[in-house]
Every structure is written in C-alpha cells, then in structure tokens.
Amino acid sequence: MLLNLDNITFYQILDFIGTLAFAISGTRLAAAKHFDLFGAYVVGVTTAIGGGTMRDILLNQTPFWMTDPFYLICSAVAVIWVVVFRRHLVRQNNTWFLFDTIGLALFTVVGVEKTLSAGLPMWCAIIMGAMTGAAGGIMRDVLINEVPLIFRKEIYALACVTGGIMFAIGHRIGIDTHLNAIISGLAVIVIRLLAVKYHLALPKLKVEEADEEKDA
Amino acid sequence: MLLNLDNITFYQILDFIGTLAFAISGTRLAAAKHFDLFGAYVVGVTTAIGGGTMRDILLNQTPFWMTDPFYLICSAVAVIWVVVFRRHLVRQNNTWFLFDTIGLALFTVVGVEKTLSAGLPMWCAIIMGAMTGAAGGIMRDVLINEVPLIFRKEIYALACVTGGIMFAIGHRIGIDTHLNAIISGLAVIVIRLLAVKYHLALPKLKVEEADEEKDA
Amino acid sequence: MLLNLDNITFYQILDFIGTLAFAISGTRLAAAKHFDLFGAYVVGVTTAIGGGTMRDILLNQTPFWMTDPFYLICSAVAVIWVVVFRRHLVRQNNTWFLFDTIGLALFTVVGVEKTLSAGLPMWCAIIMGAMTGAAGGIMRDVLINEVPLIFRKEIYALACVTGGIMFAIGHRIGIDTHLNAIISGLAVIVIRLLAVKYHLALPKLKVEEADEEKDA
Fold it and tell me: In this predicted complex, what is the ipTM?
C-alpha cells in the first residue's frame, strides 16, 4: 500500500527521499531540544508536509496528505531512522543534505505546477512553489521556538524562486511538463549546492533603531 | 442564548467544562507572561478553539465557533474567572486538571467523528482527533513564545490517539455512536490520569549533533 | 499595473499607505534580528497580508493577495525603503506610526464588511475585523521569535474592536457604506492616537502560580 511496486515511478522515489529528508531534519532538531518521541514525530511531519498543506489550504483543495497515508508513514520512518542511527547521523550529513535539496526541488516544482493547474497567475504560482518548498522549515523552527533558519542563511529560498520562475516560463512556452520539471528541479539543486559550497548568502539588512518600541 | 436550559444536554455541559478549562489554561499562562486582558483573552480563546479550527479548515468546513458565540463567551468567562480567583487558582489545580482532561476527551472524540462523517479514511480521522485535542495547546505555547509543553511531557497525545483509535474501530464495527463516544472518551481520561499519577512519559530522543548547522 | 492612474481611488491610496506601513514594521523588526533580504521580505509580507489571509481562509474565500500582485509589490517597496532610508527610519517614526494606524483602521473596516457580506453574524464580523487588523502583527512576532507586542501594550486591539462595533451597528441601521467606513475608520485612528498619547493601556493580569507545570 505504501509503495505499489508494480508501477512505482521515478517521481514516487524522489517524493520518498524528499519527504524522508525533510522529516529527518525536523526530527533531529526536535531531538536536540529534548522532545519526546511524539514531539519529534509532530515536528518531523510538520517539516515534511507543512509547506504543501499551506499551499493546498490557500488553493482551497484537500491537503495532499489527508487521502494518502504515504507522508505520515514516511515521517514515522524518519523517527525510527533517527533513533536507530543516532550515533551516525553526523556522518550521514552530506547524504541528507543532498536528499533535502532533492526534496526542495521536487516540492517547489510540484507547488508551481499545482498552482498553475488551479488557474492562478504565474507570479502567484512562483510564490506558492517557494512556499511549498520552504514553509515547512519555517513551521519547524516556530515549533521548536527558534528564529527560522532560512531567514538568516543560504540562498535556500532564492533557489526555490529561480526554479519556480524557470518552470513557470517553461510552462508558458509549452515545454513538455516532465522535461520542464527535471530542468527546473535541477536548477534548484545546482543553485543550492553552489550557494552552500561557495558560502553565497543574501546581504543582511542593517538599520539603526534608537526607539524600536514606538513602531508597533 | 448561551445555554438554552430547556434542552441543555449532557454534551453541552461537557463542552462548557472543556472549553472553560482549555481557555483558563491559556489565560493563566498568558497572565504569567504579564499579558494584558486582551492578550490573555486571545491566548485563552486560541487554546480553546485552535485545534477545532485547524480541523475545520483542513476539512474545508466553516469553523465551528463562527456560527455559535458559545465558545467566545466561554473564553471570556475564563478570563473573568482567572481575574476573580487569581489567589485561589493553585488550590483549584486538581479540578482544572480534571476538566482539562474531560475537554481533551470530548474534543478528540468530536474530531474523529467529524472527520469520519466527512468521508475521510480512519487513519486520517485518528490524526484529526488528536489534532482537535492537542493543537490548541501547541498554538497557545507558540503565542506565549515557549516550546510546546506537550512535546516534552506526559502521554497527552498518546491518550488522544488511543481514544481516537477506539472510537474509529467502534464506528467501523457499528457500535452506537453515543456509547462509542463515552467509552472512547473515558479511555482518554483514564490514560491521561494514569500517566500523570505514575509519571509515565514517552522516551526522549537523543542524538549526537556535532554540526547542527549543516542540515538546514 | 500597480496603480491604474486613470481610476485610482481614495481607497487604493489608503490601501497602499497601510500595506506599506505594515510591511515596513515587519521588515524593520526582521532587520533588527539580522535577517537577510529574503527573510525581511517574508516577515514584511506576512505582517501586511497575514491578518487578511487568515480572514479569507476562515471565510473560505480565495486570499485577496493571490489574484492581485499589488500587496506583494508593496511589500517589496517596503524592503527597498528600509534599505534606502535605513539611517533615517527613526526620524520617520511618527509618520510611519500614523500610516500604520491608517492601515489598522482600513483593514479592520474591510474585515468587518467582508464578513458581513458573507452572511455571518455581527459578533463574528467584529472578531474578524480585529483579526484582519491585528493578526498580521502577531504572526510577525511569532516569525521573529518574540512574544507578540500587542498582547502587552496599548489599546491596539480595543481600537479595532470599537471601530468594528461601530461599523457593524452602522451597517445594521443602514448608514451609507462609504460614510460608515469613514466614521468607523476615524474612530479606530482617534482611539489609537489617544491611547498612545495618554499612555492608556489595558490592565495586566496577575495570578499566583505555585505550580505552573501541573496545568497542561
């Protein structure tokens, strides 16, 4: 039921890898905060499905995980993985970073495609793609009571936005959907890998605040 | 208007008790953070209606409190109660703990029932039941800027999940709905009381993180 | 496209001023937390559209910003403004405070009107008006990991509620909508300005908590 091996697709394998990687990132951060197994599961599942759930609510569609147990099972696998490999997770960092990036690319492209299919304008689809990829991580950080990581580091969101723009343009000019998804997804992956390798980051905002309290 | 005494039901009394207890838990924590009356009300009302609102949004139904002022009035009663009895709240702890548990049981069962009625699968209904019972408390802790309490203590959520599974099975095998609700609700109450009495808790996750920053 | 100057209306100018002021308040607080440009934009946009988005989701309508790029562009203008005028923002405090208050008044009235138009009861419309005005600021503070400011200071929300009650009553007794909106909006502005000028605030709740942990 989890995976029908007769017609398992390339897309489903990527979906599994990405969901697992997102859930593991949430579960690990929850563990670092001494959450119990339930808390770790909730944070993991929120990281994995949070962005897509927000997208589906905004699109007024039934959230994708409510009709397919795949995503909740993936998140349970993530908790088991973290428990079993807890002494080896640091050594697996590069692998999970890559899988996380694959998930980011997939979720972004799915978000753009679903929004365009709902008949919304291109700029809205690009926003929704970035939201699908990045909002789960923001919710994760809100739940563990930390300032969202992606607001301070890396070109994480810029990778989503660039991939989303590419997919939306490809869709407009009529490129085959699968080819378009692969090209745009690879763009997300390449941009993020380059950003991390060369420590590229957006400039930070600096303001002078003599009286922060005044402006509510 | 709040309570039509001609046909006030057992269910309505439980609903009042549970809503009041949830709102009081939010109001007290807000007061401990020196919130003003308005802030205390918002936190109280979020604790009381947050879980059910999330459920109704996911089910694409009008949130239950938008057509019946009962829940917002209950939350106002909670603020008044906290103001009037502020020196006696600690002595009332056991009572409010019991009422809070009654609310947890009721909200869980209502959440499972409503989701099954919407035609969604059993496993989804169990998740939605736990969400109805527990998400309000998570939102409360996000608003007061604390790590959600239920991620670190007690079998709170496990009680919801067990009660939800019992109700869903009873529903499947055709037990009378009222009887089913009472049995499942009592299971939630008993599990939580036992968990607190014997200090039962889920194990905490422990991981070794040499480099937490890498895994965004 | 942003502003069609042929039929630009008084309402659109107010909408621009209010959205800009809300977004700037979010962007400034994000900058004070050393967020990067993307993070500052997300916090700004959340402050500007968060309340109305929550309202539209609860009303089961397509969120207002998904069909009109105006609001996302406004928020980008806010980030540019903060970058360009970063050394002069403190001197602009009074102006932005006034614009923020205009936004609060407008968003409150729009929220009440939209909810009444959806056929919901008056008390619900008043709540939704206050939510439209105030929820964006709460989300902003959750994102920057601070206790929401409006829970501790000023008559911010009380101004929304009063203006909302006035608009709902005016609507019931049949006052012309535009006149009603102007009167109610002015009430919000006057109440907030007076509250800040005379340091009016709601009383804080005080409770004695010997054992905060017990009450989950």
Answer: 0.88
